[in-house]
Design a protein that fits this description.
The protein is of the alpha/beta class. It is built from four helices and seven strands, in the order αβαββαβαβββ.
């Protein structure tokens, strides 16, 4: 498979999962986008979930100007610092949906980041809440439902917080 084919497959899976999750999540609860990048998935989420509070976490915002969240919903800084302070301020169990795509080309580093982020993300999910991610996470209070919704193994990961 070419790198172009791989990118298309990843972006298609991302879009399809965000569309599915937008229909599936509870009507109450925050939406969290961890990793803004160029803003494509944030833009997609805000079009699919108009009126929802969407908070975005980004170390160094550089998205397309049309894809920048409002200043009060953009949390800038190291996610290992901003997620805990956000949780202290807003509380645990507040997110209906968390989308995270912050991987790099270094798989060892990606696994370490996922290991460290898992408890921070898990604390924010409300019962029944969904986490969609570009990698596997260790979320003991969640069920991996990736295979139930037709995601190719290892392509993207979907977890639902147990009730």
């Amino acid at each position: 498979m070419t790198r172009l084919d791989s990118a298309i497959r990843r972006l298609t899976a991302q879009r399809d999962l965000l569309d599915w999750a937008s229909r599936e999540i509870a009507p109450a609860g925050l939406v969290l986008e961890v990793g803004l990048g160029n803003g494509r998935t944030y833009d997609h989420l805000r079009s699919r979930l108009p009126g929802r509070k969407i908070y975005v976490f980004e170390r160094s915002p550089a998205a397309h100007p049309d894809c920048m969240p409002p200043e009060e919903k953009l949390i800038v800084g190291d996610v290992f610092e901003t997620l805990p302070s956000f949780t202290q301020r807003i509380g645990e169990g507040v997110a209906a949906l968390i989308h995270i795509d912050i991987g790099t080309g270094d798989e060892t580093r990606n696994r370490e980041v996922a290991r460290r982020l898992s408890p921070l993300l898990e604390a924010l999910l409300q019962p029944g809440g969904l986490l969609l991610g570009d990698r596997a996470f260790d979320l003991p209070s969640c069920t991996d439902i990736s295979s139930e919704i037709g995601v190719a193994q290892g392509r993207y990961f979907v977890y639902r917080r147990d009730a």
